[in-house]
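Ops channel
N.P.: pipeline sanity check, posting one input/output pair.
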């Protein structure tokens, strides 16, 4: 069963925990490398670096968090990121907001489709 299915959502795809970790690493690298390359604001760049640190921390097995709790934190971080982007709290620039919405959606999707059982 995927994490999203435990919340009552119907999902077309399920990821193994290993695939989830791989996608998290890709998202972390993307959030560190892409904002400076696109010329996004410094506030967005630093916010994305913090997001990458969170993703790498949640991937670490020393955090003593069960997988379900990690997925909950990741999904909440993605929802918060999308909400902040929609409101324009981090940056008012359209490209910054679009990138942050994309990253938040990727976080939520990745966490919801990960198998927990």
């Amino acid at each position: 069963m995927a994490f999203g299915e435990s919340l009552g959502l119907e999902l077309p795809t399920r990821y193994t925990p290993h695939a989830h970790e791989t996608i998290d690493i890709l998202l972390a690298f993307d959030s560190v490398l892409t904002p400076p390359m696109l010329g996004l604001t410094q506030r967005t760049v630093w916010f994305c670096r913090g997001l990458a640190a969170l993703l790498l921390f949640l991937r670490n097995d020393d955090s003593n968090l069960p997988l379900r709790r990690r997925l909950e934190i990741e999904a909440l971080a993605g929802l918060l990121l999308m909400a902040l982007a929609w409101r324009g709290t981090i940056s008012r620039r359209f490209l910054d907001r679009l990138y942050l919405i994309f990253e938040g959606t990727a976080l939520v999707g990745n966490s919801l489709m990960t198998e927990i059982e």
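N.P.: looks fine end to end. The radius of gyration is 14 Å.
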